Amino acid sequence: MTQQTPIRRVALSLAAAGVPPLPLRAGKVPFGNCRACKGNACGGRSNMKTPGPCRCPAPCHAWAAATTDPAVIVSPPWAAAWRGAVCVGYHPGGASLTVVDLDDADAIAWARSALPATRTVPTTRGEHWIYRGAMRSVNAVRSGVDIKSTMAYARYLGPGTGTMADLPDAVRALAAKEPPTIRPAPFAVAPTGAGGGECRHRTPAYLERGIAMAEQRITEASSAVHATVYRTFLAVLSTHGRCGCLTDAHVARLFTAAQSKGETARHCTDAWTNARTRLGL
């Protein structure tokens, strides 16, 4: 019996209960894209039930790779991932569930006063409150509180205790407002010489290649994720930060890549701000 066998058994039991699992490696993060899917060049997957253009059999699309098909879970591509996995994750939205991730004692105290009781699972630092019903996932809806449901994954830490309640309006209300958009301060376009001319970074292929490489660097990080995110933000800003090329869409792509590795919106904002400060932007 290998060390990974119990992990795979947990995954199979979740799948049998209609909860789509996925393997997580060190740092509680999903496995990165395989060579064929590197940088989501394959088109990715739209969600667990309706795959996008990619038909890759490997568990390399984070939450979108989660499945309840036992044949896939024990297939050779997944078997290799289970050997390198340290725990099991799952896609709550794929099972019509919502996880309210309470990160500390203050968040737990707030939940006990503001939310109806439901099934509770202890975590390393706090608790997962699990409700029946799906909604969109939002990080940092308040201090120490994330919502994980559709297009997100949570670590499986056991069945928990208590009776699962229906998703209350109080939780839905936390995501009613759009999260604040992180907007880099506007930068003046760098001069290109006395004769003028267009900034080279505005060439679509040049900028797109830089952002895609930054996304790949973050998603392929196997350790020191915080440091990798910061260094990547620093590199992007040092190249594109002074010419006005970066848009909200570019920043959102970088933040999404970081959050796919377990970073919170707050961590992303801090890293971005620190990188700008260091560069004097």
Describe the structure in your own words.
This protein has helices at 5-16, 70-73, 76-84, 105-114, 169-174, 204-219, 225-240, 248-259, 265-279; strands spanning 21-25, 29-30, 87-90, 97-102, 119-122, 127-132, 138-142, 145-148, 154-155, 165-166. The chain is of the alpha+beta class and 281 residues long. Strands 4, 5, 6, 7, 8 and 10 form a 6-stranded mixed sheet that branches. A 4-stranded antiparallel sheet has the order 2-1-3-9. Strand 1 and strand 2 (29-30) form a beta hairpin. Helix 6 packs antiparallel against helix 7 (225-240), helix 6 (204-219) packs parallel to helix 8 and helix 7 (225-240) crosses helix 9. The protein is globular, with a radius of gyration of 20 Å. The relative contact order is 0.12.
Unreliable segments (pLDDT under 50, ≥5 consecutive)? 47-51, 178-198
User: From the structure provided, what is the oligomeric state, counting identical versus distinct chains?
Assistant: single chain
Q: What structural class do helix, strand and pairing data support?
A: alpha+beta
Order of helices and strands: HEEHHEEHEEEEEEHHHHH
Strand content: 5-15%
Number of strands: 10
Average pLDDT works out at 82
Principal-axes geometry comes out as: globular
Share of helical residues: 25-40%
Task: Give me the number of helical elements.
Answer: 9
Amino- and carboxy-terminal Cα gap: 55 Å
Descriptive terms for the model:
single chain; 281 residues; alpha+beta; six-stranded mixed beta sheet; four-stranded antiparallel beta sheet; 10 strands
Question: What does this entry show, briefly?
Answer:
With 281 residues, this protein is of the alpha+beta class. It has helices at 5-16, 70-73, 76-84, 105-114, 169-174, 204-219, 225-240, 248-259, 265-279, and strands spanning 21-25, 29-30, 87-90, 97-102, 119-122, 127-132, 138-142, 145-148, 154-155, 165-166. The protein is globular, with a radius of gyration of 20 Å.
